[in-house]
């Protein structure tokens, strides 16, 4: 029996009932994964194809949430899942909007299942569309790096669909290479004089000054800083310096020195936000709270 909420994903996209964020939220809800696993086990016991009665929406959902490691901390992180969902839904929406064309273009059209009706030329057309459509920043085409990331995930998904015998054609082989040249790899490094100019410009702005100093002096990633808690800050009794503990990319732990000048700017930030500046290891509130006192979304970190 299909889960009602997962079935609704297709309806939402087809009829444009809800906004894209609502559909993404549905796809990120892990509530339905165990039910899909039970159906898979049922098929296996009967020597049937695992995904014989799955819908396109369920295949995307299962692919994003599928468990590959016995340890949960080695599974895909939530941010990674969100990126996968957005990219796969973008492709799915394109396919749904092309449904009337597919009906005329494909012999023996299969109702209710878009992916099984796709042919090699449809994949080539989508890649051409994605590379020229004005969907990037500033109403421009996607950058080479963004296009490469999208096509890499789509290619992996298409390969999986074929391996799972959900689709007949190896559509992943039709995706042209989007690998980047050395010149196309974005350079996000700032030189010393550029950092100094930024800090000097914001020296009278405690919020931006604190955030920028934290980025410049610790080398931590934006996501690591956005997720840091005030309770992760401690005073090292041996050195007499303040430090920040946390978990970074790939589950690796870090322990960063907070230079005295940086620590002062962190306190100034927190004073401006009207939150505690007294160390408290049990305080799980954000190190850098937003106006509302919550954690920053790392992609909107400002």
Automatic annotation (TrEMBL):
Keyword line: DNA recombination, DNA-binding
Keyword DNA-binding: yes
Gene Ontology MF: a single term: DNA binding
Core-binding (CB) domain sequence ranges: 54-162
Domain Tyr recombinase residues, every copy: 185-302
Organism: Priestia megaterium (Bacillus megaterium)
Protein name as catalogued: Site-specific integrase
A biological-process GO annotation: DNA recombination
Domain of life: Bacteria
InterPro entries on file: CB (IPR044068), DNA_brk_join_enz (IPR011010), Integrase-like_cat_sf (IPR013762), Integrase_catalytic (IPR002104), Integrase_recombinase_N (IPR010998)
């Amino acid at each position: 029996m299909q889960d009602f909420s997962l079935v609704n994903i297709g309806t939402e996209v087809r009829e444009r009932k809800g906004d894209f964020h609502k559909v993404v939220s549905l796809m990120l809800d892990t509530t339905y994964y165990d039910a899909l696993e039970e159906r898979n086990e049922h098929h296996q016991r009967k020597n049937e194809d695992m995904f014989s009665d799955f819908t396109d929406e369920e295949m995307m959902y299962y692919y994003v949430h599928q468990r590959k490691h016995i340890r949960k901390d080695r599974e895909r992180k939530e941010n990674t899942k969100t990126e996968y969902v957005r990219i796969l839904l973008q492709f799915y929406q394109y396919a749904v909007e092309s449904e009337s064309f597919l009906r005329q273009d494909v012999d023996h059209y299969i109702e209710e299942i878009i992916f099984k009706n796709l042919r090699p030329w449809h994949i080539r057309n989508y890649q051409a569309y994605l590379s020229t459509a004005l969907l990037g920043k500033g109403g421009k085409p996607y950058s080479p790096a963004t296009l490469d990331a999208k096509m890499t995930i789509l290619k992996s998904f298409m390969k999986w669909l074929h391996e799972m015998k959900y689709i007949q054609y190896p559509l992943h082989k039709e995706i042209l290479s989007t690998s980047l040249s050395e010149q196309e790899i974005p350079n996000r490094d700032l030189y010393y004089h550029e950092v100094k100019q930024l800090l000097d410009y914001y020296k009278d702005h405690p919020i931006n000054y604190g955030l920028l100093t934290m980025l410049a002096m610790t080398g931590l990633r934006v996501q690591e800083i956005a997720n840091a808690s005030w309770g992760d800050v401690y005073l090292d009794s041996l050195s007499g310096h303040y430090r920040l503990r946390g978990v970074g990319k790939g589950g690796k732990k870090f322990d960063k020195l907070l230079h005295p000048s940086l620590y002062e700017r962190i306190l100034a930030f927190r004073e401006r936000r009207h939150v505690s500046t007294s160390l408290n290891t049990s305080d799980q509130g954000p190190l850098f709270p937003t106006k509302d006192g919550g954690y920053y979304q790392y992609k909107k970190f400002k």
